[in-house]
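Provenance and format

Records in this collection were gathered into a single text stream. Each protein contributes a sequence line and a token line. The two records reproduced below are adjacent in the stream.
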Amino acid sequence: MRTLLEIRSALQALKANKEFIESLSTQPEQFRKAFEDLDKKIRTAHDFLKDILNEVGGHVKREAVKMALENMDMDRKALIELGPTIADSHYKFAGELIAEIILRKVPTERREAYLEEKIRMTAELTGALHAIDIVLLAYVDSRGLMK
């Protein structure tokens, strides 16, 4: 998540750079479209990515865990496998807890649709890697670095 937010910051800096904008205008349509699509997708996902990063991307807040546990359905089941060492232990309930932290502010009747929307949004961001390749290749080409 942090990487995608860093990419967003880099895109904003590039869009503010006159030299880059001039160079962008000389690139093939495929490149310009890839750059614009990447920028649009990351802008669209920004708030969600920031929320995820703030909620579960670093230190999970005690209050978020408390609220998630209080809101979880009592019939929900999860698993913990305790091994002889920490490396052999598996906290399979963690996914349930993270999901509840992310969904705790979403009404029950909207949760499935919300998850589908957010999963689709983040899946589309995987195209960011291809767009970054195109941007990098165009930069290398514009600077004549591979000749």
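Adjacent record:
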Amino acid sequence: MSTLARSGRTVTPMDLPRLGADVDPGWASRLVDRLSGGLYPGERVLAMVGARRLRPMILFVAVTTGRILALDANPQVGPQIAVTLAGTRVELSRRRPGSNRLRATPPGASAVDLGTVGDPDARLLREVLPGPDVPPLPPGAPAVWRRSVALRAGRRRRWPGTTFVGGRLDDMTVRAILCQCRPGEYPWLVLGSTAVLVAFADRLAIVKPELAGDHPALGSVVDYTDVTDLEYLSDGRAGALVVHSTRFAPYDVDRARADGVRGPRQVPNALPLDRDTYLAAQEPLARLHTLVTAGA
């Protein structure tokens, strides 16, 4: 079960849209949950099918009462592609047995490739897709969104009110950070690159997307009230910022390196951080210490 961000109610099987053969009900529950905050007033998800496209990555296609949304596994940051249905021509063309190309052509625009779907899912789409005379969405609705604005801004290190300290962020890391954000929220600090510490007004998280596999939302989230200390440990070549809290057992970087099994990258409350980056982050880390002290 999951909780809808807008309504605060529990997602039950009765709430789920019609599902294609390639969509697991558990995943569908998560997707509906994450999509709920990005729907227009009165917009509902009618159906969800499995889809395949590499660039941009598309794993699912959702049909709503007003749009077609092409999604990856993290729709919280926005659809990969969104097309309004009003005036749009939607086509399913058979490529080969078991594979159908889905395209949508908005009025006055070029055709948009939404990936391929299997035969059972194509039949479901034909049943639920409304015609081009569907009522339009509220004024200002975009016809096509190629990428999430939040994702693009994160890659460019341009989130409002966010201080970035560290190297360039790749798509996987940006998506993992956005999974930690509440609707309309951005962290005030992003520290690191492939593994990052992100700080919010009331909590921090250490996110290591390379260890999360297919679950980019995974991260060690700690409320400031539970943090007992922030400690930087270094051997002169490398280092780690360790978040001590009531949630984690004490951790010693040197001992972990010595046993050759668990280094800071594998430990949930330790952020691998070279000394130069640590020194460059002294001002935001001082603010973080203040928030931790106030929350204690």
